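README: folding subset

This subset contains proteins for which both the sequence and a predicted structure token string are available. Records are stored as plain text. Below is the entry for GNAT family N-acetyltransferase (209 residues), shown exactly as it appears on disk.
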Amino acid sequence: MADCDFIIQPCKPAEAEQLAALVFQSEPILLSYLFGGEEQCLSFLRYACARADGQFSASRHWGVSDANNHESDVLLGACTTWYSPMSDVFQYQTLEALKGFFDVKQLGHLLINREALDLCFTSPTKDQLCLGHLAIIPSARNLGLATSLIAFAKRKAQKMKKLALVLDVEKGNTAALNCYLNAGFNVVKENHFLPTEQCFLRLELPIQA
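--- output ---
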């Protein structure tokens, strides 16, 4: 795989199972807590990734694949981006995915944690593009794929005339943190999500016009 060329393109609903695994990999502790444990979380993500729109929809993600192997349908990595405000369709489909999968008890759990989530993961400003769910499968790490996805998001931010690219990373995820710092991001804030006793860093990369 070291000699491969890679291509970044929109994810497809048919890739929902692979994408769900990557999204889960991006923050397993928090997602497991929010969505009822690892098994139920992965089931929900597969369901949500296959939907037409919403926070976890394949249509909102970009995947990395091997450009030289046209017979391979393996996602090597993925990421998403969002901004403020997202469309009404996005918001509606995100809520519909939750209501269509979880029972009242689990929805109540999410509602109870909403304020803590909003305080920890602040929405990007109108001048920012937020990068999220970035993950690379283990066998494809250290090949520059994460760097390529960051560069892709940066170009997208430039086209949208944003002034900065932002993201949140768990402080203890040193591999991811070092990758972002090496890409030019700076730590601008430290936030704590008390229910899981996690510390997340908000990072920012200024965008030049």
